[in-house]
């Protein structure tokens, strides 16, 4: 992000937020839930609007994961829409498989689609239009995407009764520095008190919630038996969250020799279970 733009917290699920694209041009995004994933609407306006009738999920165009853990303070929350349980789910997203897997015919088709409940299947290029591409955007990349695809958006010149309130009258937004993300790497799960990664991550999540220190935002692993849990700390709670993580892992008899804890984006310092 340029010039460390000031951030505020990720808007709650169903919040519609205006994004300044140019001096007289706004795009709109809806927060899917508080994990930093959003839908971009298929129209732009020449002034900020707050007209509920415009913001039907039927007008969602593009799904994306947002890179900063928060939104720039120049993005204004305009209104909140009610999302159905289905609208809150991740849409099925596609990624292109790596070239060598395609060349060696290790996959049945070049594009892998993953559903919200992690069912995976493969499709040909002519089918990917039905699904959302998995993209991660920074604020600059979001603006660049809109500007590069202006012809795909409906341009709306709003009526007087559709306009949002001037920014000056909106309440002051608390600016914050997001907490860090801890990457926990575990191996040798079979020797722990709990051997299921999802259950281990739930124990960590419960401990973090109890101390209001953060939440688990991702669970995964590699073929070689290395398992990964990602934790997003609440602002100012990095130390407290690390304490929660270590407490749970020690209680579950994680092996200090094979347990690494890294701060995402900072290489070279394994915090481990000390």
Whole-number mean pLDDT: 89
Number of helices: 5
Radius of gyration: 21 Å
Strand residues, percent? 25-35%
* Class of secondary structure makeup: alpha+beta
Fraction of residues in helix = 10-25%
Low-confidence stretches: none
Give the N-to-C terminal Cα separation.
Answer: 33 Å
Secondary-structure element order, as H and E? EEEEEEEEHEHEEEEHEEHEEHE
What would your notes on this structure say?
The chain has 274 residues and is of the alpha+beta class. It is 17% helix and 31% strand. It has helices at residues 85-88, 99-103, 139-148, 197-210, 238-251; strands at 7-8, 15-22, 25-31, 37-41, 43-45, 60-66, 71-72, 76-80, 93-96, 111-114, 120-123, 132-133, 136-137, 154-156, 181-186, 214-221, 227-233, 259-263. A 6-stranded mixed beta sheet has the order 8-2-3-4-6-13. It is globular and about 65 Å long.
Quick structural overview:
The chain is α+β, with helices and mostly antiparallel strands and 274 residues long.
Give the SSE layout.
Elements: E1 7-8, E2 15-22, E3 25-31, E4 37-41, E5 43-45, E6 60-66, E7 71-72, E8 76-80, H1 85-88, E9 93-96, H2 99-103, E10 111-114, E11 120-123, E12 132-133, E13 136-137, H3 139-148, E14 154-156, E15 181-186, H4 197-210, E16 214-221, E17 227-233, H5 238-251, E18 259-263
Parallel strand pairs: 5-14, 6-13, 9-12
Antiparallel strand pairs: 1-7, 2-3, 2-8, 3-4, 4-6, 9-10, 10-11, 15-17, 15-18, 16-17
Helix pairs in contact: 4-5
């Amino acid at each position: 992000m340029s010039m460390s733009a000031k951030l505020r917290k990720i808007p709650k699920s169903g919040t519609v937020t205006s994004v300044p694209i140019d001096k007289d041009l706004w795009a709109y995004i809806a927060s899917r839930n508080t994990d930093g994933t959003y839908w971009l609407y298929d129209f732009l306006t020449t002034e900020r609007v707050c007209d509920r009738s415009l913001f039907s999920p039927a007008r969602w165009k593009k799904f994306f994961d947002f890179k900063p853990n928060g939104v720039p303070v120049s993005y204004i929350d305009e209104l909140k829409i009610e999302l159905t349980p289905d609208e809150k789910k991740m849409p099925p997203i596609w990624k292109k498989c790596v070239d060598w897997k395609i060349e060696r015919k290790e996959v049945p088709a070049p594009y892998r689609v993953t559903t919200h409940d992690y069912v995976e299947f493969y499709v040909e290029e002519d089918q990917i239009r039905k699904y959302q591409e998995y993209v991660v955007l920074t604020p600059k990349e979001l603006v660049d995407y809109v500007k590069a695809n202006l012809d795909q958006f409906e341009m709306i010149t709003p009526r007087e009764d559709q306009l949002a309130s001037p920014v000056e009258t909106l309440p002051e937004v608390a600016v914050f520095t997001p907490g860090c993300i801890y990457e926990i790497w575990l191996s040798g799960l079979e020797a722990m008190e709990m051997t299921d990664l999802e259950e281990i991550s739930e124990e960590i999540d419960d401990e973090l919630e109890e101390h209001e220190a953060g939440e688990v935002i991702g669970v995964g692993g590699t073929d070689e038996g290395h398992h990964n849990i990602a934790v997003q700390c609440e602002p100012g709670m990095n130390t407290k969250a690390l304490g929660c993580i270590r407490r749970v892992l020690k209680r579950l008899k994680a092996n200090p020799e094979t347990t690494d804890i890294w701060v995402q984006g900072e290489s070279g310092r394994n915090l481990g279970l000390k």
